[in-house]
Specification:
The protein is an alpha/beta fold. It has helices spanning 118-125, 155-158, 172-179, 188-212, 220-223, 226-229, 242-254, 271-277, 301-308, 327-339, 341-347, 350-355; strands spanning 15-24, 30-39, 42-48, 61-65, 70-73, 75-80, 128-133, 141-149, 159-169, 235-239, 259-263, 281-283, 313-315, 373-376, 387-392, 395-399.
Length: 403
């Protein structure tokens, strides 16, 4: 076995071993001195370093020496607008909100995400290997999210799940956008009413399609609702205020839908009600200005309060509201304010993956999962920790020594 680091061959046949690190699998096991074996694009073995038999892997193997650092599954961003709200390019790169019509479920983030956005490299350099990306919150229904890897040039090759969620928004954002246009919605009542109307029409379409047989003519504007109505993907609800959170829960229950509560800024004020609903929360961006009235109670304590109440929690930057590379630091601040280190690490790995419905591929280090790995000099929740290596699909895509 070669004992020096080399770039692995592209393709599915290369082998790689990451060793001499503190392996946090996020699947229940931590190896204080461990190793991780990668075969092609998948994880092959995880274990204690004493169990590593290098001769088993032959000679042509890439070796990454973690040098006592922390080895984790690649970090997962559960809600952002990277590549759809481009950095450094102004209006030309802003494709986040279609603000001419309040209900646009048929829009696909896949058609607007630009992998050349500088934020993708920033994410990789922070150990972030995958992200849920989609439309903003100006519309009552904004369109479909996509869950993608952060490395690549062709988005179709980066997709893990698409469509991954249907964006809906409550409260200030859709109200303000359409009030300024002198049209609905201009109140919270009309936001809820427009969403109910759309969901009722989608249910009618679903029944008509079932009854129509082979002669049924598909409607592009409603076909996109079927994965939501069939509970294959969730509503992704933009909610800040407590009353908006409860309205979202009310409507999702009414139509028997899955849902994630994104932002959940006042979630700590109604933690028991959220736990009772069974819906998970994606909390943040807490590292941002309280510039809007509905985020006046924003606090890093929210994630900890919800977690202790029994709610499954992920942390988000909502990039570009907060920059995506600060996701581990946001989790660290939540840990300090009550979430704790273990739950904070889960909030940006396995919890985020489970909430995004991709835990069969990412979020933990286990045989058969995608070889998405981040190697840090120490605890990634701490501000002085450096990312040493980022590995996506078994390839080293970031090496700090080369920067």
């Amino acid at each position: 076995m070669k004992s020096i680091l080399r770039d692995p061959k592209k393709g599915d046949n290369h082998m790689m071993i990451v060793k001499n690190g503190r392996i946090l699998t996020m699947a229940g096991a931590t190896h204080e001195s461990g190793f991780l074996a990668i075969d092609g694009k998948k994880i092959a073995r995880v274990g204690a370093l004493r169990d590593l038999r290098e001769q088993e892997f032959g000679r042509d193997v890439a070796v990454v020496d973690a040098e006592g650092g922390w080895v984790l599954p690649g970090i997962v961003e559960a809600h952002c607008h990277m590549g759809i709200s481009g950095e450094k390019v102004g209006l030309e790169g802003n494709d986040c909100n279609e603000t001419m019509e309040p209900v646009t479920p048929y829009l696909r983030a896949l058609d607007a995400i630009n992998p050349m956005d500088a934020a993708f490299h920033a994410a990789i350099a922070a150990g972030i290997t995958s992200a849920m990306i989609g439309p903003g919150s100006s519309n009552v229904v904004g369109g479909q999210f996509a869950f993608v890897k952060t490395n690549g040039r062709c988005l179709d090759d980066m997709v893990v799940l698409e469509p991954a969620a249907m964006k809906v928004a409550f409260g200030e954002n859709p109200k303000k956008n359409y009030m300024d246009q002198s049209r609905m919605p201009s109140t919270r009542m009309s936001v809820a009413a427009l969403l109910r109307e759309e969901l009722a029409l989608a249910r009618q379409y679903e029944r008509a399609k079932k009854d129509g047989g082979e002669k049924f003519e598909k409607d592009f504007k409603y076909e996109c609702w079927l994965p939501v109505l069939n509970r294959e993907i969730p509503l992704k609800a933009h909610v800040h205020r407590a009353d908006d959170i409860l309205t979202a829960i009310r409507i999702a229950k009414e139509f028997d839908l899955r849902m994630t509560l994104d932002h959940c800024t006042e979630g700590h004020l109604i933690a028991d009600a959220i736990e009772k609903s069974g819906f998970p929360a994606i909390v943040g961006p807490s590292l941002a200005s309280r510039r809007k009235p509905e985020v006046q109670y924003g606090d890093f304590k929210t994630a900890g309060v919800l977690s202790k109440a029994g709610v499954k929690v992920a942390i988000t930057t909502d990039h570009p509201v907060s920059l995506i590379q600060y996701l581990p630091i946001c989790a660290g601040l939540a840990a300090r304010e009550g979430l704790g280190i273990d739950e904070a690490l889960k909030a940006i790995t396995i919890n985020a993956a489970e909430i995004c419905n991709v835990a069969d591929r990412v979020g933990s280090l286990a045989p058969g999962k995608d070889a998405d790995v981040a190697v840090f000099s120490g605890n990634p929740l701490e501000v002085f920790t450096k990312t040493l290596y980022t590995i996506i699909d078994g390839e080293i895509v970031y090496d700090r020594r080369a920067t």
